[in-house]
Amino acid sequence: MPSNIQIRLATDRVNYTIALNQRIPKIYTPGEVITKQNEFMRGHGTYEENGDLKASVAGVKEEINKLISIRPLKCRYNGETGDVVIGRITEVQQKRWKVDTNSRLDSILLLSSVNLPGGELRRRSAEDEHMMRKYLQEGDLISAEVQNVFSDGSLSLHTRSLKYGKLSQGVLVKVSPTLIKRSKTRFHNLPVGANIILGNNGYIWISPIMNVEESSVGGFVQNLEEVISKPERETISRLRNCIQALAQCKMMLYDTSVLYAYEESLKYDVKELLIPEAIVDLGILTQERISMLTSG
Amino acid sequence: MHTTKIFIKKNKIGNYLKHAREHYIRDDIYCGFESCDKCTRATSNLSSKHVNKCNLLKNNHYLILDTNVILDQIDVLDENVIGNVIILNTVLKEVKHRNMPIYKRLISIIENPSRHFYIFVNDFNKGTYLKQELTELINDYNDRCIRKACSWYIEHIPDETFVLLTEDKNNRAIAQQEDIPAYSIVEYVQNLTANENLIDKLAKKEFQEKFNAADIFPPHLTIVEIDKGIKDGRLHQGTFRASRDNFLEGSVNIQSFEEDVILRGYSNLNRVIDGDVVAIEVFQKDQWVSPSELVLEDDTVNALDDNLERKELEISKQRTSKKNIKPTGRVVGIIKRKWRQYCGILQEGSAAVYHLFLPADRKIPKIRIETRQAETLKTQKIIVAIDSWPRNSRYPNGHFVRALGKIGDMKTENEVILLEHDVPHSQFSEEVLSCLPKLPWLITEEDEKVRVDLRGIDICSVDPPGCTDIDDALHCRPISDDKLEVGVHIADVSHFIRPYTALDTEAASRSTTVYLVNKRIDMVPDLLSSNLCSLRGGEERFAFSCIWEMDHNANILNTKFHKSIIKSKRAMTYEEAQLTIDDKTQTGSLAESLRNLNKLAKFLKKRRMDNGALVLASPEVKIMMDSETHDPIDVEVKKLFETNSMVEEFMLLANISVAEKILNDFPDCAVLRRHPEPPALNLEPLVKAGKHLGFEINIESGKKLAESLDQATRDDNPYLNTMLRILATRCMLQAVYFASGTFQKHEFFHYGLAVPLYTHFTSPIRRYADILVHRLLAVSCGADATYPDLMEKKKTAELCQNMNYRHRMAQYAGRASVALNTHLFFRGKIQDEKGYILYVRKNALQVLIPKYGLESTLYLGKKDEKLDIFTYNEEDQTQRCADVVFHAFDPVTIRLSMDSKNIQHEKFVLQLVFPVIEGFSVPPLEDVEMPEPEIPHKKRKK
Amino acid sequence: MSRKELISKVGLRLDGRRADELRRIRCKLGVFSEPDGSAYIEQGLTKVLAAVYGPHQVRGNRLKAQADAVIINCQFSMAVFSTSERKKRPRGDRKSTELSLHLRQALIAAIEVEKYPWSQIDVYVEVLHADGGIFPACVNAATLALIDAGIPIKEYVCACTASIANNNQAMVDISHEEEILGGPTLTIVALPMSEKIVLMEMSQRFHLDHLKSVLEKALEGCKNTKNILDQAVQNHIVDVGASTGWASTGEKVKR
């Protein structure tokens, strides 16, 4: 048994919030009237009652032209076409997979939306339907892109790019999708020696750097034989803890913030990063570096 | 608005349980001073106009009291001299916890604005709240809180002086160290400028210091020891009941024994007083004794005489009898004192400041008090409270509370009776009177709309002569050839007494009208009881009617209830009604209706008897008063007519019908009356008495009992049956009110009447239960709305408890009043009367004299020792002297006279006239003829 | 009368509150990272944790899924150590099933169920310490957890108890001690902003004369509770928003 177990009372709980002195926008809470004028359009997080536009979630107001919506600070992933997501297969059905992507309904990955081994233009035969479980089975992790959004809100995914497909060795970190900063690139080759996929749905994939040719096999091969060296595993663990720490401090996640956090974390052992004080410290240091960057 | 602290309490309920309670500490609590500008304002009775003058302090001051001062010296606080007192909430809570009656008195003082008392909530105030330390005892903690509050006040209002009064020396010393002026109440009162009578009222806790006498009682165990003992099963808890006849004996009823445990002798009684909850130890079987047949009185005169031995000896002689032994034990500790204030007189014979007080209640021991007003108090009936009973004192110590008036004065004696029976008898307050309707009272159209107009019907009332609170009236008229309509109309008191008014609260508290021989203490003010609610002849009144359709055999075909307006044609007495029925020449509708009612009543009665209703008897007499002097001029047995029974039958029927109706509509909160079946043990004396006379009394069921009582007659002694019935009555349990939700259905049974359901509906003027029943019934028939308390089982149960208590007390008070007046009547008279032996005791015969409804003791010999010419046979319960044998129920002739030596307990002296026993009986008075004893009226148990 | 006075002569209750004062409410949102939303609330000594999962795909019996509304699944439970006597409380006993159903009914009133067809929301509440007013605390905690999860609700759902003291005075937010000593207790769940009452429960019968005043007290209690909860939500949002630098929103505005 490990000899040093950290136990603390709830009263000694550390406050993770890293308060910054900044302008506090108006916060709306459910039931609050946003506007009594009716020329606005009803967006997410709002509803209309007796001609008033009211908030239905707690958050900040967003106005895009006439569309008013209230954005909560935390919610399930609302997919948009083009988003990159990490997902887990939950069910194999006829001609499609069901994928958990942290949205309120499972996403769908059609057999026709994947690249099957043997080339892009291969015809999908009945045999393929039988073979589906061979390609992806329940529990497998994949990276994919949102192809479109169905009317009931569920997402249709595709992996028709070599970037996407089944994920092999690595670590999955789940955070709130609102913490993922929107940017063009979701795939990052971090200079510290790991790949990271920041899925828009709040699922983050950290993996060791693999040979390029392997990933081109079509995305259905898992290379589980290759032994990842201990330093690499440590790097991945450290990244995982850094991301967790930033999420804990409710800081936005993107390549720079992760990288900064990684660098600042080097003064701690990997496992020390689980200690609340270290988490807060890491959060503050990262925050400082980011603000230096933006101001400088 | 408030800050919060949470504290954890540990409680012990079987196992250790952790309880957490919140305690909100506030900063908005008013200190009570008008001059204060730091506090949030609220109402306060403190006034700078009231000045406390005490030689200990230079100027006006405010008093802060410790709990012990209030508990011990409430009589002093009752005096107007002391004012501007701050009662801390800590203290108030402790008082409430320790002694509820004192708490109630304190509250009434606090609520009186002219007394300038103020409750300061120190335990929720930010500045005065203290946390109880882990090892701190609750008493120390409370003392600390009190001192904290004192110093807070001193700091909070620097211009005023605050004084802490406490009896606790320690507390006083610490307070003085903390610069809080602190005195004991004795010290304070002695230095008050206007203290004359106050000193007498000081409770005496510290007599023993003055006497320095040796301890004569064993010590009491502490609460902890008692708790432990009870848990172990070594000790038992029970309520002590003193014997009326023997001041050195009493009994305790405890759960683990079927029979009462006997306590006998000074040290075994160990300073217990009637009503106290005690812990007792039961002796080994070989030390058990039988209940004493001796009648003993404490005749010590000197207040300082602590000699006990003599009486003790007499008692110990008794241990010899091994038969009929009962569990015996001794008191080891007092769990709860039930001391109250006692009425009585000062015993003569002591000249110093210490006097013995002789309570009117024979179950209470004499009390030693200190007074300087003995000369004036000697002729007065006074009230005294007990303060303590130290181990070295033969008597409890007490103090004088107030004087009632001259001894022997009718007013004073009535007052004593009322006080001793806890009958609320003060004048109705202004607030209560303001609830009464304004005169002239008129029936409005509104009233006519909601009530059935029965003014055209020939209704009459039948009551005893001189009755002014007529609450029932009757009518009967044929509605077809084979159907009669019978109506019982009860005064609609609930129309006038509305819930939540002061009037209602007062009536509920009084619960019943109390009838003394020459005085009536009304439950409701006179305007209602003798006027608006009284169904007087020829006046329009509101009534609650119960109307039946019956056939000629008194079978009920239909029942309905409604509120109505009636106009009684005539208010008759029983005698008048009887004459009307018997006088065949009267053929008016009223006479017809009475005859019909009488006929129906006979059917009803027969049916009831067949069901096993008991006919019980108790000697009941009426005392004729001189209208001028209010002295009793004659005592006579109440006369009964057929019409008494007629009215009674219909009242019973109405009550039963109403009971069924309200139980049906309010299964949970109907006010009913139950009469539990007496346990076989209670009936044992009856069975035994029957056996001695050769009758078998079957007590299997009420019906069997009724039958066997009917058969137990003997031609040579016509009164014997009545005697048995009197005995049976005494074996019965009390009938009680209850809320239907608090008992099981089979327990609703009324044993005496042999009906499954019963309630009281017919006398709302003089019983509160009837008012409740009226309200329930009014809701049932849609005439009125409910109100919260009416629907609440618990609340109803509480009311029932009070009603039962008041009802019982009213009965006792009534009897006491009759006894008092019988005594007055006999003062200075000597008469020979015929009587019957009720019980045979070891040294006496208990004799009943039916003519006066009087029961008294014929001592066989001098008061304490028995003449040896009598042999007592325990087995047969007989006393034999040569050829003369006294059995129970034997007729005897007795000479009656009054012994007025003891003005408090005047008693009858009985001497035997017949049968003649040489050297014991006295010759008959010459000119007195032997009157035949009349049969006292048979009274049905209601 | 003989029943213990719940409001003393000077107008204070056993714990020092006045008749219309709530117990202290302390609450915290986002206490767990695993569920979508979570909250902890203390109302006096009553302590409740709530966790919300979803909306998510209906798991298990898929036939339950509805085309027009989200399924709300509530689970009430009490910790063994929640009362002064340790007691095993198996899930699904009558009391907890009843409270689960009531909780569901309360939440349905506020959640815009039609927005999430085919989905399911799970609400778990666990009583850590019971000191009267368990159910209201559960409702309030669940509301906070829903808000934390970003699930749209029409407005706050708040609950409160009220009772009658000394036979005529209405008092609000009944503690365990008062529940035992006092008379009937009324529990209401309300939408305090629109003053709609969602659910009402009485421990015993109330007399009609009392009901109005008690109801008003309880409703007032709900409104006060709502204000306290609202403040807590605002504070929470400010804390979290400040850390993220309002980034998720700011960016959108620019777009």
Estimate the global geometry of chain B from the Cα principal axes: globular
Separation, N- and C-terminal Cα atoms of chain A? 48 Å
Output the structural class of chain B. alpha+beta
Strand order of the largest sheet of chain A: 8-9-10-12-11
Give the helix proportion of chain B (percent range). 25-40%
Oligomeric status? heterotrimer
Number of helices of chain B: 26
Task: Kindly state the number of beta strands of chain B.
Answer: 38
Major β-sheet annotation of chain A: 5 strands, mixed, barrel
User: Roughly what fraction of the amino acids of chain B lie in strands?
Assistant: 25-35%
Main beta-sheet annotation of chain B: 5 strands, parallel
Q: What does it look like?
A:
Chain A: Pfam families: ECR1_N (PF14382), KH_6 (PF15985), S1_RRP4 (PF21266). Chain A: Keywords: Exosome, Nucleus, RNA-binding, rRNA processing. Chain A: GO terms for molecular function: RNA binding. Chain A: Residues 82-160 form the S1 motif domain. The complex is a heterotrimer of chains A (296), B (942) and C (255). Helices cover 22% and strands 27% of the residues of chain A. Chain A has 296 residues and is an alpha+beta fold. With 942 residues, chain B is an alpha+beta fold. Chain B has 4 domains: 42-190, 5'-nuclease (Rossmann fold); 203-407, OB fold (Dihydrolipoamide Acetyltransferase, E2P) (Beta Barrel); 432-668 and 759-809, no CATH class; 828-939, Nucleic acid-binding proteins (OB fold (Dihydrolipoamide Acetyltransferase, E2P)). Helices cover 30% and strands 26% of the residues of chain B. In chain B, strand 19 and strand 20 form a beta hairpin. With 255 residues, chain C is an alpha+beta fold. Chain C has 5 helices and 9 strands, in the order E-E-E-E-H-E-H-E-E-H-E-E-H-H. Chain C has a 5-stranded mixed sheet. Chain C has a 4-stranded antiparallel sheet with strand order 7-6-8-9, sandwiched between helices. Residues 248-255 of chain C have low confidence and may be disordered.
